[in-house]
């Protein structure tokens, strides 16, 4: 009996590991502007993003663009309680995958440009962790998302965003943060810059 269970567990694990790249490729074809990558983020990049989330705060954590859940898992491994994590995912395909993979987390299939309508009203936000492809999004959508950050995080939280633009992405000029930090994760393919903004 134990042998059968172990074989089933290995099969499920294999499906989860191999589903990511194929799902990203499918979504890249279906929604190129909103996917922004052909494969999931690496675990190293995910850990680098999650480590910036403060643990001494009672606010909620919002992840934007959960994809296949690599960064979601890193956030949980960092020590964030599942009931404090809200994942906003635009793609119905990715959202369904995330709901199946993380049944104890609040997964919302919605648009980050309307974030204030998707989360509990008046909720204290500890951090926004974003994998959104801000470079490839329509300019008006990008500005709406960044405005949401300013409105919801003012004086109480930080935003963590990664980009494949290792120089200075144009969207950064629309963020007016009191503190800023960046680092490059060379182990990711392609290399990515993790940026942290304190509002």
Q: Can you tell me about this structure?
A:
The chain has 199 residues and is of the alpha/beta class. 38% of the residues lie in helices and 20% in strands. The chain is built from six helices and seven strands. It has a seven-stranded mixed β-sheet with strand order 3-2-1-4-5-7-6, with helices on both faces. The longest helix is centred in the first third of the chain and has 29 residues. The N and C termini lie far apart (54 Å).
List keywords for this structure.
single chain; 20% strand; 199 residues; alpha/beta
Q: How are the SSEs placed, and which strands pair?
A:
Blueprint: H1 2-30, H2 32-35, H3 43-50, E1 60-64, H4 70-78, E2 85-89, H5 92-101, E3 106-109, E4 125-130, H6 139-153, E5 158-163, E6 179-185, E7 192-198
Parallel strand pairs: 1-2, 1-4, 2-3, 4-5
Antiparallel strand pairs: 5-7, 6-7
Helix pairs in contact: 3-4
